[in-house]
């Protein structure tokens, strides 16, 4: 037996069809990229149909038959270049139609298809004025031709002529409606693509903003955790080095404070890392976030580091939201850290915590030289100035207000108002 019609061994029907599908796809892509070639093919078909019509001697006179030849060529050009220059081809088609009426060239009748095609093209791709002009020309084409060449056969009456005119006009109108509908769909899809692109850009901007906000939050936490404890350790280390030879007991106490402060810093860092890993599946217990209840321990630590602090609580204590709790603690912590760093020798501070009806008032004052020398705003000798910036960011996140500046009598004053929000609300 021969192998004609038999499948190749080892190939499925789908695999055998792949070369054919690839070839068809290449042809389709070529035709899609060269639409004028497709239109030119149909123009040749139209021109051949017009030649057959002229040869059938449907024209009323030899002169009309001679005029039908250039008119047929013009209609073929309309079809061939309709997508390249739809507005110009519409004007050419209208001019050809007017010439037919004037020269009494009823043929070539197949050329009417060119008018349908150019009306559709202008409605879908042409300028707005050409779309309106195409609709007007399409609605007038059939009535004018019926007036110029009314039917004379025995079956024609006024009613059959009107019905024929109506249906032919509807065909021209439908070509415009289909083209306009296609234009509307294209505009709708373009709007959807533009909206999707805009939403994509907005999502990217929101993602970048979220990343920036997260980085700022981490920076605040690191600053609050590290700056306070490290400043205590630095002060204690400097004091221990100063009195190491003359007062070994004080140096030993300073080293003990450094050790406990370092452990506290490690615990705080563990808590911070635990927050950053909150989305992980790994379990583990972390140190809870500090709040106003831990302010007394914080102030005892500061006093142990050598800074006298007076601490007062006014009003009736009440439950606060975790955000307000942490913000209040961090403000006091940062303010006392600044006093130790910039207040100078002999400086003292006071902390007033007031529970009002709708807000938590914080007032931290000192009598050091940092306010007079502008060290708080400048960030001290390092010039970073992250403390006050972090305060304002934290207070802004909970909807509070901050007022910070030098005192007229010397020192620095920080006043914060935080809205009271009951826990769980």
In short:
Residues 27-186 form the DUF7134 domain. With 425 residues, the protein is of the alpha+beta class. It contains 13 helices and 5 strands.
Structure description:
Residues 324-421 form the Histidine kinase/HSP90-like ATPase domain. Its EC number is 2.7.13.3. The chain has a 5-stranded mixed beta sheet with strand order 1-2-3-5-4. The two termini are 87 Å apart. Helix content is 66%, strand content 8%. The chain has 13 helices and 5 strands. The protein has helices spanning 13-33, 35-55, 62-80, 86-103, 112-124, 128-148, 158-243, 248-276, 295-304, 322-342, 370-373, 375-378, 386-397; strands spanning 309-314, 349-355, 359-366, 401-406, 412-419. The radius of gyration is 45 Å and the shape is rod-shaped. The longest helix has 86 residues, at 158-243. Helix 4 packs parallel to helix 6 (128-148). By secondary structure, the chain is α+β, with helices and mostly antiparallel strands.
List the helices and strands and how they pair.
Elements: H1 13-33, H2 35-55, H3 62-80, H4 86-103, H5 112-124, H6 128-148, H7 158-243, H8 248-276, H9 295-304, E1 309-314, H10 322-342, E2 349-355, E3 359-366, H11 370-373, H12 375-378, H13 386-397, E4 401-406, E5 412-419
Parallel strand pairs: 1-2
Antiparallel strand pairs: 2-3, 3-5, 4-5
Helix pairs in contact: 2-3, 3-4, 3-5, 4-5, 4-6, 5-6, 5-7, 6-7, 7-8, 7-10, 9-10, 10-13
Describe the strand arrangement of the main beta sheet, using strand numbers.
Answer: 1-2-3-5-4
Task: State the total count of DSSP E strands.
Answer: 5
Helix content: 55-70%
Computed CA radius of gyration, to the nearest angstrom: 45 Å
User: With helices defined by DSSP (H or I, 4 residues minimum), what is the helix count?
Assistant: 13
Q: For the residues shown, what is the average pLDDT?
A: 79
Instruction: Please report which band the strand proportion falls in: under 5%, 5-15%, 15-25%, 25-35%, 35-45% or over 45%.
Output: 5-15%
Oligomer state of the chains in this structure: single chain
Straight-line distance between termini: 87 Å
Shape: rod-shaped
**Which H/E pattern describes the elements?**
HHHHHHHHHEHEEHHHEE
Tell me the major beta sheet: 5 strands, mixed
Unreliable segments of 5+ consecutive residues: 1-8, 280-287, 379-385
Category from helices, strands and their pairing: alpha+beta
């Amino acid at each position: 037996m021969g192998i004609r019609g038999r499948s190749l061994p080892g190939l499925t029907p789908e695999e055998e069809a792949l070369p054919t599908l690839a070839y068809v796809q290449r042809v389709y892509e070529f035709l899609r990229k060269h639409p004028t070639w497709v239109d030119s093919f149909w123009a040749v078909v139209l021109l051949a149909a017009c030649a057959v019509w002229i040869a059938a001697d449907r024209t009323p006179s030899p002169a009309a038959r001679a005029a039908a030849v250039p008119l047929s060529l013009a209609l073929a050009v309309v079809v061939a270049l309709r997508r390249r220059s739809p507005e110009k081809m519409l004007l050419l088609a209208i001019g050809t139609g007017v010439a037919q009426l004037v020269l009494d060239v009823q043929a070539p009748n197949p050329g009417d298809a060119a008018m349908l095609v150019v009306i559709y093209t202008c409605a879908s791709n042409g300028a707005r004025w050409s779309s309106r002009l195409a609709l007007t020309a399409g609605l007038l084409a059939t009535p004018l031709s019926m007036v110029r060449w009314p039917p004379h056969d025995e079956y024609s009456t006024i009613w059959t002529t009107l019905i024929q005119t109506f249906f032919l006009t509807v065909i021209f109108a439908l070509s415009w409606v289909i083209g306009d509908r296609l234009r509307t769909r294209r505009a709708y899809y373009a709007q959807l693509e533009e909206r999707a692109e805009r939403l994509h850009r907005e999502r990217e901007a929101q993602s970048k903003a979220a990343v920036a906000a997260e980085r700022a939050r981490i920076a605040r936490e690191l600053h609050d955790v590290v700056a306070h404890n490290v400043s205590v350790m630095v002060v204690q280390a400097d004091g221990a080095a100063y009195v190491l030879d003359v007062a070994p007991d004080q140096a030993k106490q300073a080293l003990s404070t450094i050790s406990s402060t370092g452990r506290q810093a490690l615990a705080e860092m563990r808590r911070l890392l635990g927050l950053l890993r909150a989305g992980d599946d790994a379990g583990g217990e972390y140190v809870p976030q500090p709040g106003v209840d831990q302010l007394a321990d914080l102030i005892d630590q500061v006093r142990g580091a050598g800074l006298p602090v007076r601490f007062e609580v006014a009003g009736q204590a009440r439950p606060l939201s975790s955000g307000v709790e942490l913000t209040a603690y961090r403000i006091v912590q940062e303010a006392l850290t600044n006093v130790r760093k910039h207040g100078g020798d002999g400086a003292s501070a006071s902390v007033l915590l007031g529970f009002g009806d709708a807000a938590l008032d914080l007032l931290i004052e000192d009598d050091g030289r940092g306010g007079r020398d502008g060290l708080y705003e400048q960030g001290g000798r390092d010039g970073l100035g992250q403390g006050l910036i972090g305060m304002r960011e934290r207070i802004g996140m909970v909807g509070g207000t901050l007022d910070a500046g030098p005192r007229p009598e010397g020192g620095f004053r920080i006043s914060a108002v935080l809205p009271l929000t009951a826990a769980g609300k």
